[in-house]
Each structure stands twice: as structure tokens, then as C-alpha cells.
Amino acid sequence: MNHASISRRQALQQVAMLLGGAISAPTVAGVLSTATRRAWAASPQWAPRTLSAAQLELVATVAEHIIPQTDTPGARGAGVHRFVDTLLSDHYPTEERDRFLAGLADVDARAQAAQGKTFIACTPQQQVALLTAMDEAAYPPVRIDSARPPETWFFRRMKEVTLVGYYTSEIGASRELRVNPMGMYRGDIPFPASGGREWS
Predict the structure, then answer these.
(1) How far is CA 149 from each of CA 66, 105, 119, 152, rounded to the nearest angstrom?
(2) Rounded Cα distance, 44 and 52, in Å
(3) Cα 178 from Cα 24, distance rounded (Å)
(4) For the chain, what are the domain ranges?
(5) What letter does residue 152 receive in the DSSP assignment?
(6) pLDDT band at residue 169 using 50, 70 and 90 as cut-offs
(7) CA 82 from chain center: how many Å?
(8) pLDDT tens digit sequence for 10-61
(9) Whole-number pLDDT of residue 187
(10) Is the pTM of this model over 0.85?
């Protein structure tokens, strides 16, 4: 990484703030594993070990909608789909892996119900509409301590692995995130109601 890059731990802290909470243990373990980072690095020999070709394309397409290409590469360009396959293969417990794969199947089922075709076969506008509905269900404007419905687990985890994979990749860390020389912003530091000096 170049001098403007930040460490993976710093990237994880920033992504956790973006997501509004903690990052799952399997995702953190994958990011901090050197073997995992090597496994999903761009290589002509790379091949998925958990996801089928169709599932890999579905993950890549959903991730690219979450972080699209702009003047910098998007999630697909950063290899987020490879990161997800490596996480599922090396770090996810069987139960969570199966739950993630079931979530992918549900994306296609939702597309079939709404449009009569798979998610990949839908137009980009139809894909965005479906993902927007999933996002709104997963992140409703409610109190922070309110429980989210269990059926939103997949989209929340998909968003997590996309953001973490992207912002801890060479592309994300060197071109998108930057070190703040003033340190991390904290908006929750208490200020005494009285007895403290105030600035005018």
C-alpha cells in the first residue's frame, strides 16, 4: 500500500462506523488473516471454492450495486466477490455459510417473484429496486436498540462483507480511505452542562 493508505484495523474501524455497529467475527478474522488476503488477491489461477459460478456472479453484481464504479473501481474491480468466497470457505462456520447461501437463493427468489426472472437477468433498474427494498427492511429508521427482523440478516451481512472487502483491499484503502491526521472523529464526548468554560 502507498503512504496514503491506512491499516486494515483502521479500515475496519471506519467500516464499523459506516455500518453503525460491530463487524462479525468471521469477517474480521478473514481481513486480518494474511493467508486469506493472499488467497483472494488477483491471480489467473484463482477459482471459487464455495460459490458456484452463478453465485459468484450474483455476489459480484450485488456488491457492485453497493459500491459502484465511479472515477475509481467499484466492488467488482476490487475483487470483493473473491473476498466473499474466501471468507465463506475459510472463516465462516457451516451454519453461517449455509445461511449466506440461502440468502443468495432468496435474492433470486425475490427477483423471480417480482420480475419473473433471476436477479442477474433483471435490468440494472430492477436490480436496484429490489436491493433498495432489502436495504430499507434491513436498516429501518428505528431506535438503535430495536431488533432487526431475522430475514434481514443476509443483506446486512452482504453489505458488511462488501464494505469490509472493498475498504481493506488495495484499491479501497489506497484510493478511497485516507488517514485523518487529527484522529478519529468522536461526536459522543460528553460536555458538562455547567462549570466548564465555553467558547463564543
Answers:
(1) 21, 18, 23, 6
(2) 17
(3) 23
(4) 8-176
(5) G
(6) confident
(7) 13
(8) 666 666 666 666 778 888 888 888 777 776 666 778 899 999 999 999 999 9
(9) 35
(10) no
User: How far is residue 9's CA from residue 28's CA, in Å, rounded to a whole number?
Assistant: 9
CA distance linking residue 133 with residue 185, whole number of Å: 31
Tell me how crowded residue 118 is: count the other CB atoms within 10 A of its CB.
14
User: Which are the contacts of 13, defined by CB distance < 8 A and separation ≥ 6?
Assistant: 184
> Within 13 Å, how many C-alpha atoms sit on residue 70's CB side?
6
Q: Which three cell numbers stand for residue 184?
A: 478519529
Q: Is 57 exposed, middle or buried (0-12, 13-18, 19+ CB in 10 A)?
A: middle
CA distance 94 to 199: 56
Q: How far apart are CA 27 and CA 91, in angstroms?
A: 7
Cell (9 digits) for 63: 456488491
Q: How many other C-beta atoms lie within 10 A of the C-beta of residue 169?
A: 28
pLDDT in tens, 83-96: 999 999 999 999 99
Residues 6+ apart with CB under 8 A from 183: none
Coil, helix or strand at residue 67:
coil
With a CB cutoff of 8 Å and minimum separation 6, the contacts of 22 are: 16
CA-CA distance, 19 to 197, in Å (whole number)? Answer: 35
